[in-house]
Each structure stands twice: as structure tokens, then as C-alpha cells.
Specification:
With about 325 residues, this protein is an alpha/beta fold. It contains eight helices and 17 strands. The protein starts with a strand and ends in an 11-residue tail after the last helix.
């Protein structure tokens, strides 16, 4: 059977399981053609860490260990030479997972079978840049991954395959990121045989159910203690590990990594008031209910248990916000 020539395009940790799955797909799997990753596209090395040294993306790191050609254009939309180079690989399919660069129509049409995307939501819900966090913030009870055919629009293409997973009451953005990255890799391998031979037909998305997952900003992670405790708890879970929910204590900014919520507990204290502090955490009045901070991070220090933070200071009567 003729190998399926694949260009892989991805950048962050989320994309690594999908690339690894393509490289390690069992050759004897029923109906699966041999897979040949002919090139890996990833964003250019970026400064990272305190030293601001150039750092390869997680996808590039894996590609280099497996001896794959790595291509890192600054743009595919404004560089005709980069598009010509991509077309020269004569790929059957391009697999895109959190690549981070816009793909012009000339790139979408270059592979024989076009481009498919591993997207971390149950489309058409949460098209866009931050589907994991937006699902948590909205209080969704379910999310998942979709394998979709890419079009010029933002996540508008028809869907080949989808896999759902429940969102647990303690799931964080980090938890869902890792789970969906693994689910996406499995869903990709499941869908590939049907995509390759044309037997799997993609289904158009229902336009009347579209929602958008707008890009995260640091400003939206500032806690408004007048909001209900349930909403604040979703913020804390969604923004872990970035940008991390935060609040002010006097002149300091505290980053809140985890908390427990008592949505029904009543208090007469003003929102943001510390109403209890002890071994179980720091209890703060919300607009409705109580938020018990369990893990936090003071400026210039590592994240710590709330009880350890309390060893160094008293919060009696303190106000956050």
C-alpha cells in the first residue's frame, strides 16, 4: 500500500501527542495506510525563561529527536516562497494541531486531501483560540475533540470525527489540556483511514449553535469578589495554568491556583472580606457564597498551600480585591 505522505504543523505541548501518534501508528492496523511524516512545520524559536534564550517549541524538540525535517516560517500568508516550499513536499495531507499561524487558501489546497485540524472542543461550540478555558468558564459539563476539514474561516470546516469527555467539578485548564491532547491524538488515528480512502464523510457544522472561544487576556483573570462564588471557582480552574486567577491583598498581587467553593453558604460580610483562615484554607466572602482559597502564590515566591502562607501573616479582617 502506498504511504500516506503527511505534513504535520503544530507548536505547543498540546500538539506533541498527535505527532507522536502519527510517528508510532501501528503498521498492521486494519485499513491504515503506512504513514510517512515528510516534514514538520512549527513556529520559529522564541525567547523563553529568565535568560530569554531562544527555545525550540515542544513539537520541534520531538521532531528533531525523530530525525524529521523541520520548517519554521515566520508566515505562510505573506511568503510565496514558503508556500512553494510546502507544496514541493507533495503531501497527501496536512495535519494541523495548535500551529498558531494562519494558513492561506494556497496552503489549504496544497496537499491532495487538504488540511485537517485537531480542535479541542465539540464544534460548533467554542470555535477559536481558547476552547478549553471557555468551556470551563461557561460551566459546560462536557467537552471533547473534533477532527475537522480546514477551510478559510475560523474553525468553520465540516467535522470528520468527534470524541466527548465529561468535565469534572475539579477539572482545571491543565487537566483538560492533557486529557484532550491525548484524546485528540487517538481521534486523529481513528479518523485517518477513512479520510485517506474517502469513506469517512465530514458533516457540516450547525451554524445556529456556534459559540466563540476568544483569546485569553491577563486582565480577565482579576477576580471580582462581587461575582458568585461558583463563577469565581470556575475562573480559578479555567485560568490554571495561565494566566492564573489573581487578587490584591494590600499592595501585593496574589495568584490563586486552587480553591473550594461553598456556593450556598450565606454571610453578611462584604465581598472580598476574609471571614476565616486556618488549616482548611482562607475563606473569602463572594457576592453569593464562599470561596475557600487552598493554594496561592505570593509575589516572587512559588505556589504554596494557603496554610503555609498563613504561617507568615495574619489575615484577620483583611479585604481582597
Amino acid at each position: 500500500m502506498k504511504p500516506l505522505r503527511i505534513i504535520f504543523a503544530g507548536t505547543p505541548d498540546f500538539a506533541v501527542p498527535s505527532l507522536a501518534a502519527l510517528l508510532d501508528a501501528p503498521a498492521d492496523r486494519a485499513q491504515m495506510p503506512p504513514l510517512e511524516v515528510v516534514a514538520v512545520y512549527t513556529q520559529p524559536d522564541r525567547p523563553a525563561g529568565r535568560g530569554r534564550q531562544l527555545q525550540a517549541s515542544p513539537v520541534k524538540a520531538l521532531a528533531l529527536t525523530r530525525g524529521l525535517p523541520v520548517v519554521q516560517p515566520e508566515s505562510l500568508k505573506k511568503d510565496p516562497d514558503a508556500v512553494a516550499r510546502l507544496a514541493a513536499f507533495e503531501a497527501d495531507l496536512m495535519v494541523v494541531v495548535a500551529y498558531g499561524l494562519l494558513l492561506p487558501v494556497s496552503v489549504l489546497d496544497a496537499p491532495r486531501l487538504g488540511c485537517v485540524n485537531v480542535h479541542a472542543s465539540l464544534l460548533p461550540r467554542w470555535r477559536g483560540a481558547a476552547p478549553i478555558q471557555r468551556a470551563l468558564l461557561a460551566g459546560d459539563t462536557e467537552t471533547g475533540v473534533c477532527i475537522m476539514q480546514m477551510e478559510a474561516g475560523l474553525d468553520t470546516g465540516p467535522v470528520y470525527h468527534r470524541v466527548a469527555t465529561p468535565i469534572g467539578p475539579r477539572d482545571t485548564g491543565a487537566d483538560l489540556h492533557d486529557r484532550l491532547a491525548a484524546l485528540g491524538a487517538g481521534a486523529l488515528i481513528d479518523a485517518l483511514p477513512g479520510i485517506a480512502d474517502g469513506s469517512l464523510m465530514p458533516e457540516p457544522q450547525a451554524e445556529d449553535r456556534v459559540t466563540y472561544a476568544h483569546k485569553l487576556t491577563k486582565d480577565e483573570a482579576i477576580i471580582d469578589w462581587h461575582q458568585p462564588a461558583e463563577h469565581i471557582g470556575r475562573m480559578i480552574r479555567a485560568y490554571n495554568p495561565w494566566p492564573v486567577a489573581q487578587t490584591r491583598l494590600d499592595a501585593e498581587t496574589l495568584r490563586i491556583w486552587s480553591a473550594e467553593i461553598d456556593a450556598e453558604r450565606a454571610t453578611q460580610a462584604a465581598p472580598g472580606t476574609v471571614i476565616g483562615a486556618g488549616k482548611s484554607g482562607i475563606e473569602v466572602a463572594a457576592g453569593r457564597g464562599i470561596v475557600r482559597i487552598v493554594r496561592l502564590q505570593p509575589p516572587g515566591k512559588r505556589a504554596m498551600a494557603a496554610v503555609d502562607f498563613l504561617n507568615a501573616r495574619s489575615l484577620d479582617g483583611a479585604r481582597l480585591g
